[in-house]
Amino acid sequence: MKILVKGGRLVDPGQGIDAKLDVLLSGNIVEKIDKDIPEKDAGMKVVDASGHIVAPGLIDVHAHLREPGYEYKETIRTGTMAAAKGGFTSVVCMANTDPVNDNKSVTEYIIKMARLEGACRVLPCGAVSKGLKGEELSDIGEMYEAGIVALSDDGKSVKNAGLLRRAFEYSLLFNIPIISHCEDDTLSGGFVNEGAASVKSGLDAIPSIAEEVIVLRDIAVARYADAPVHLTHISAQGSLEAIATAKGRYRKVTCDTCPHYFSLTDEATLGYDTNTKVNPPLRSQKDVDAVKEALRNNTVDIIATDHAPHEFTSKDVEYNLATFGISGFETAFALSLALVHEGVLTLKELLGKFTVNPARLLNIPYGTLAPGSTADLIVFNPSIEWTVDAAQFLSKGRNTPFSGWKLKGKNLLTIAGGKIAYRDPLFKKA
Question: Which CATH superfamily is domain 56-362 in?
Fold first, then answer.
């Protein structure tokens, strides 16, 4: 089947394109991009994108789909439906499932379920260590053959630096990155950022140095192994300064941040809303300012969601007992468009952090609409205003601190692999 996306403004950072162009999809392939492509084939579906932006499908390098083991929080089906609604056509799912994705059987299960039930592409991330215990390397070679695209013990840092070094050496063999969760748990153990807000709330605090020291260590180990390292959900000014310095000396360092780290400060925790409890914690205004500047100057290469859905009961408790995490698929892109409205990034720069940069990190052939590429595409409007209503989420996780927020910018249509994965009810039917 052919789909002609007509009349939109195509913004594709991977090709350096920002122009009014039509896009013709043939099956799961981009057949052509050009001006005024004629509607000549019988049975061709035509999408009127006039007045809207057309872009490659977004890629999320850090998300939690919970399956297997925690299907009461999220499933591959519900998680990918939410991802497609948010504009994502490829999602990297972290390994902290039950059982942990530390062997080929779990990897194969995730890929099978994604093929059967996924609304978009699911790319498994394998655990660095068995059981996420940091004691013994996982079956990396077998997981790679089964389909992992990265390695991470996300949720925990790899305590054993010697084990981490060997993991970096294995990552070189298979040309996949290690995604590093940066947290020294001997310095953390709290619930909110250490600062003026934690003094006011009285909640146990996590200092930013807990993130920064592991950032420095993991860069040093990666550099020694001459391997790439990707530092995920970076939130603190000191960490960003260390990364910026390291990038001047070592080209294989990349990092991401998440929308909540440039949309909220730790002042949001003063209301004891457990939906603001996230790890790493929401930081101070100076950290938020530093994150925005790091996005602007490309110290931060990628924006990821860290989608972490939870059931209601795990958040409907005292702050110190609540689980960490925000359900992020359905708000991430709209929150990030605020960076464009504020003048922090251009639209092309923002889309680069969701498309071509993640594709380069993972060495995957997505994130562009070049002829011959996979037909992953979104149509969105950066000017449409809407109000976040968690009750309308497609994700099982309704845990968001943004409920009731008025956001500017909305995804209207997602095509993943040549198939319509999401269409906003208000958008013209294809």
Answer: Metal-dependent hydrolases (3.20.20.140)
For residues 56 and 364, the answer to whether their CB atoms sit within 8 Å is no
pLDDT score at 7: 97
Q: Which residues of the chain have pLDDT under 50?
A: 430
> Which tens digits make up the pLDDT trace of 201-231?
999 999 999 999 999 999 999 999 999 999 9
The active-site residue out of 153, 256, 301, 306 is 306
CATH number at 2-54+374-384+404-423: 2.30.40.10
In the residue annotation, 154 being an active-site residue is answered as: no
Question: Sign of the CA dihedral 190, 191, 197, 201?
Answer: negative
| pLDDT the model gives residue 429 | 57
Domain boundaries, the chain: 2-54+374-384+404-423, 56-362
Strand blocks (E) in 120-265: 121-126, 150-151, 178-180, 192-193, 205-206, 229-231, 253-257
Residue 25, H or E segment: strand 22-26
Residue 52: CB partners within 8 Å, gap ≥ 6?
Answer: 8, 9, 379, 380, 381, 412
